Amino acid sequence: MKRIMIVGGGIVGATIAYELSKNSEFQITIIDKDVPAQASTGAALGLLFGVISQKKQGRAWELREISLRRYSQLLVELQEQTGETIPHLQGLIHLCFSPEEMAKWQELASLREQQGWQLELWNQSQLQAACPTLNTSQMVGAVYSPQDLQVNPQALTTTLLKAAEQNGVTLSWETEATAVSVTENGDDKHSHTVHTNQGDWEVDHLIIAAGLGSFPLTQHLKKPLPLTPVLGQAMRVRLNNDNGLSSVVTGNDVHLIPLGKNEYWVGATVEFPEQPLVDPLDKVWEQACSYYPALAEAEILETWSGERPRPSQQAAPVIEYLEGYDNVILATGHYRNGVLLAPATATKVKELL
């Protein structure tokens, strides 16, 4: 039986643990220095921009397509096993503000049709009919992606871990990997023991899926993976009276996600520098209110932020063996797409194993 340790209890590590737990030949442990679903996962909005992504071919599109196909089964599969319903919304609406933008989406829609996916182009009247509470005066239309979705990343992560534990995975939280003992194995090194503040684990394979926390471990292994932290920010708001949105709406990199009970998440994918929340969130709020005026009367319930790991010297994400090691796998550096690409990452890790 292969002893596998996964370092990182976010959405990526949890998905890997769950998918690998179906193999009876694996004895799996997952650890995290905190409790699960924190850091990048705790700050994520769970937007799965797959079909609607401008990634058209190559690895970037392949990973998105793998994930979307898996998500169509995964949420149902997890509910059947655990009894937990994972909050999610099917379909994404992307607002368009110029004819040139609409032409770009028309080209993508034609390509996606050839690839077996669907995008709908709406004119302004169709958008207004679908979302009567939006201010469409500055818009020429929208693109609707019925096969993309939004999922609650924290609920998904905890449910994945619950299912993995039911399948025999050992979960160990507030457990920090502090060192790894290795031996020489020909031209490669071989990790055999992971040392933590909670004790030592002997391993046959080590999977590093710790987001920004991956860097110190790779540095200890003398093959540092440079990762740049990128700040993402969001807020949860509540309207007194709302007859509004039932689908996710995104425009100019600002996202509005209905949560039910008159509550919304409002967030952005733009890369803000590290600075106090109020300045960049004011810009996000102004943009969101411009296309959904009802927000101007909303109560802000909470704000939050999180740092997302972007690889500095290669494309995101990094899914490969750590250079010079025959049993250390990197599954990290997902930047803004950890939730979207978690299933595809698990698939690629299985192939590497």
Topology summary:
Layout: E1 2-7, H1 11-20, E2 26-32, H2 39-43, E3 47-48, H3 58-82, E4 88-96, H4 99-115, E5 120-123, H5 124-130, E6 141-151, H6 153-166, E7 170-173, E8 177-185, E9 188-196, E10 199-202, E11 205-208, H7 214-220, E12 227-238, E13 248-251, E14 254-260, E15 263-268, H8 278-291, E16 299-311, E17 318-321, E18 328-332, H9 338-352
Parallel strand pairs: 1-2, 1-11, 2-7, 4-13, 11-18
Antiparallel strand pairs: 3-6, 4-6, 5-6, 8-9, 9-10, 12-15, 12-16, 13-14, 14-15, 17-18
**Low-confidence blocks of residues:** none
Number of H- or I-type helical stretches: 9
Strand coverage percent: 25-35%
CATH class categorisation of the largest domain: Alpha Beta
Largest sheet: 9 strands, mixed
Shape: elongated
CATH domain topology of the largest domain:
FAD/NAD(P)-binding domain
Description:
The protein has 353 residues and is of the alpha/beta class. The protein has two domains: 2-46 and 153-226 and 312-352, FAD/NAD(P)-binding domain (3-Layer(bba) Sandwich); 88-150 and 229-309, D-Amino Acid Oxidase, Chain A, domain 2. 32% of the residues lie in helices and 34% in strands. The protein has nine helices and 18 strands. It has helices at 11-20, 39-43, 58-82, 99-115, 124-130, 153-166, 214-220, 278-291, 338-352, and strands spanning 2-7, 26-32, 47-48, 88-96, 120-123, 141-151, 170-173, 177-185, 188-196, 199-202, 205-208, 227-238, 248-251, 254-260, 263-268, 299-311, 318-321, 328-332. Strands 3, 4, 5, 6, 12, 13, 14, 15 and 16 form a nine-stranded mixed β-sheet that branches. Strands 7-2-1-11-18-17 form a six-stranded mixed β-sheet, covered by helices on one side. A hairpin with a 2-residue loop joins strand 14 and strand 15. Helix 3 (58-82) crosses helix 9. The model has no long low-confidence stretch (mean pLDDT 94). This is FAD-binding oxidoreductase. Residues 4-349 form the FAD dependent oxidoreductase domain.
